[in-house]
Amino acid sequence: MLGSKPSPRPPHRPFIVAGTLIALLASAIATPGTATAATPHNGPDQHWAGSEIAKHETDPPGEAPPPSLAASVEGVDVSSHQGNVNWSTLWNSGVRFAYVKATESNSYISPYFAQQYNGSYNIGMIRGAYHFAVPNSSSGATQANYFVDHGGGWSRDGKTLPGALDMEYNPYGQTCYSMSAGALISWMQQWFATYKSRTGRDAVIYTSTSWWKTCTGNYSGFGAINPLWIPRYGSSVGELPAGWGFHTIWQYTSTGPTVGDHNRFNGAYDRLQALANG
């Protein structure tokens, strides 16, 4: 306690000190799927699709948008932030697809990935995996391979969506990872090309219009190939990044109602199945 007089060391009990030192050392060592003790509030377990967008952009957390005449399918995205997920509750609430965080950079695997990825599949959902990019830590090819090797693969089973690349504000430093627009675009091109060479699929991209404008100069070259998953917590999807004439998935709230961030697929269920089937 601050200001209190330290107690004398208990006599003849040196093993307590040794045990304490061992415990402190153990807590400081990062294990797969966990943040280090030195960064408990800024490790990969605290990063999910939209976690950094919510810190930088001004849209308030949105309520569910009003029903639309256009066909749509309700979805959710989760990460280790949610822990073990009760998939039956989500299914009963009408959720029919899920994206699950698998990896970050080339050093982190979500410790809850198996429960979330397999659990959503087993309850009947169409599901996919996503990768949280840290472009200044390793190459696009390295991170795409790491993602595919640790849950981000694809199979033509009618229940697996193509992998998604999460591009958003840098949680560890400068907004655009201290990279030029050209360098970031090249990094993404390499990631997408590697992913396609490994899986045969063009990956989805998750990004916000504001970040995209700031960090890529509103590059338009991915819109014809990579489906867009866009966050905007309000009553409409808003402006899209250059190159996309429509969105594929809209992340419309980060506040539930059950667990995770909630999304709407821009089409009927058979079109969601078509995306899964390639």
From TrEMBL:
- Subcellular location, record wording: Secreted
Concerning SUPFAM superfamilies, the annotation shows: (Trans)glycosidases
**Recorded GO MF terms:** lysozyme activity
> What's the EC number here?
3.2.1.17
Designated name of the protein: lysozyme
Q: Map out region (Disordered) in residue numbers.
A: 55-76
The leader peptide range reads: 1-37
Gene Ontology CC terms, in alphabetical order: extracellular region
Briefly state the protein's biological role: This enzyme has both lysozyme (acetylmuramidase) and diacetylmuramidase activities.
* Claim: Disulfide bond is one of the keywords in the record: yes
Q: What is the lineage of its organism?
A: Bacteria, Bacillati, Actinomycetota, Actinomycetes, Streptosporangiales
Q: Which Pfam families match?
A: Glyco_hydro_25
Supply the PANTHER family for this chain.
Answer: LYSOZYME
Catalytic function, reaction form? Hydrolysis of (1->4)-beta-linkages between N-acetylmuramic acid and N-acetyl-D-glucosamine residues in a peptidoglycan and between N-acetyl-D-glucosamine residues in chitodextrins
Q: What is its main location?
A: secreted
User: What keyword terms does UniProt attach to this protein?
Assistant: Antimicrobial, Bacteriolytic enzyme, Disulfide bond, Glycosidase, Hydrolase, Secreted, Signal
Which family would the database say this protein is a member of? Belongs to the glycosyl hydrolase 25 family.
Q: Name one GO biological process term.
A: carbohydrate catabolic process
